[in-house]
Amino acid sequence: MIMKRILIYATALLSIIACNANGKTTIRGKVTLDGKALAGVLVSDGKEIVETNRFGRYAIASDKADSMVFITTPSGTVAESADGLRPGFWAMLEAAPDKVERHDFKLVSENQDNYRVLFLPDIHLSNDPRRNDIARFKEKVVPFIREKASEYEGPVYMMNLGDFTHELYWYEFDFDEADACQLVIDEKLPLRTYAITGNHDHDAAIVGEEVDFRSAWLYRRVWGPDRYSVNIGGDHWVFLDNIIYINVEGQGKKAPGIKGDRSYEHALTDAQMEWLEKDLSYVPDEANVYICTHCPFYAGSYKNSGKNLMPDEQLERINSLCSRFANVVANFSGHIHKFDYFSRKDYASIRQYGLPCSSGIMWETDPERSLYSSDGSEAGMVIGQCTKGSPIELSYHTYDHGERYYSIYDMNSVGKIYKNNPGVKIQRKLAPERADYSELKFRNCIFLNWWTWTPGCSVEMYEEGRPLEVKNVHHEDPVKNLTYDCPKLANPVKHHKARLKDSCIHMFEAKCRKADSAVEIVMRDAEGKIVFRETVQRPLAFEY
Hints:
Layout: H1 2-18, E1 27-33, E2 36-37, E3 42-44, E4 49-51, E5 57-60, E6 68-72, E7 77-79, E8 90-92, E9 101-102, E10 105-109, E11 114-120, H2 133-150, E12 156-160, H3 177-187, E13 192-195, H4 211-214, H5 217-223, E14 227-232, E15 235-240, E16 243-245, E17 264-266, H6 270-281, E18 289-292, H7 312-322, E19 329-333, E20 340-343, E21 350-354, E22 380-387, E23 393-398, E24 402-403, E25 406-410, H8 411-420, H9 422-430, E26 445-450, E27 458-463, E28 466-467, E29 471-472, H10 478-489, E30 507-511, E31 519-524, E32 530-536
Parallel strand pairs: 1-9, 1-10, 11-12, 12-13, 15-18, 18-19, 19-21
Antiparallel strand pairs: 1-2, 1-5, 3-4, 3-6, 6-8, 7-10, 11-22, 14-15, 16-17, 20-21, 22-23, 23-24, 25-26, 26-30, 27-28, 27-31, 29-30, 31-32
Helix pairs in contact: 9-10
């Protein structure tokens, strides 16, 4: 028995040495599943990726430059959570770079043949008394998450896509990333969360050299690494921080504790790109791959339509890495505060899903009304339904009115509000180039804002059976204007040139002959299949 144990220990030692032949071990540990050693688990320090041996052990010759070690959890497992919110798949490195430290990871089995994800982009918790965001989060968002998690029998995960907080207010309202996380922990939400960094999740009190890494110190301690992956039910989920924080000292908005302008770039670091290539090399061709970032890869409606937000060479490399997968790789992102389901022919391996702000427009719209995002969509969450062997199925659920995908406007009713609204009158003086929906040219028009429209989908409208000419007009949404822009413009001190122009790529218009006729609206997908159909009785009241 003694000799047998010696042989086992010797074999384990040799295996560790073999997976660390290129240098001195500085990180080691063991991975277990349901208390038993688990072989073949990928372990990384953000640079190197190694596999656990048959005894569940790993060893990495790491320079600890990223201060983290993490595992890629295998499908059918989830890392144990100490607080019920954050799976323990990562650990902070605390010892000196040349010192050996040990970090073990414990997994438990979970049936992931069917699972659900809730996407949470841009919740912007700040403890701002002017926005009353904490109370509104508890009253509106928390019950919504509980409901969506409890109504499903399989596992449910939340994908935090960044801007969980707002760094401009960390010091003014004494509420930072750790406080926001603790707030959610205290609510005891019944789901595990995977997160990625947004531009507002950095510490703006930090400036100078290596500011991107140093300013994310608190985020790493709260949520984990800036690059990692997890396997869920046969799907491969990748999380990448594509915000490079710059924060030029002495410039930008002045606020307590803020030392820079909070500027940033949309890009990955070279180290992240190298890690991504290694990570994807372990993924089978037939797997569904979902890449979560804060910023979208390229623009559909956001600022320069059709332009890349990230560097061309990085997108070309990512597209190339994803080209071998049988299914198109999906990119889920936030940051733009609006729906932007978009694809580019030159990046055919990737389908982008830009998601609206889960806090509406950072909790700035009237608390007595529903929350709205920057494209006029009613605030809520995109929900992904995942079944083993099938691509993800997406739906959109609003906090106040359940599953919704579009809004319809009788512009006669909208025009009456615009004609008499005090905020619109001020807007006409300060920003005359903005749309005035009280003008005659909008009389008898029907607007459809199809939030989840994608290029290739089509809209038809019929007035009492007669087909109408439908145009994709890119007009601004009247609800967004009245609930956000006009109140801001009413205070000239807060007036900003960026609010002078607005557009929405998923707005459609048709002009009717009558003011009181019924209009049937038909929405088709790219294959011509009807996905939504509604008949509108006019006049249709305008509510917001």
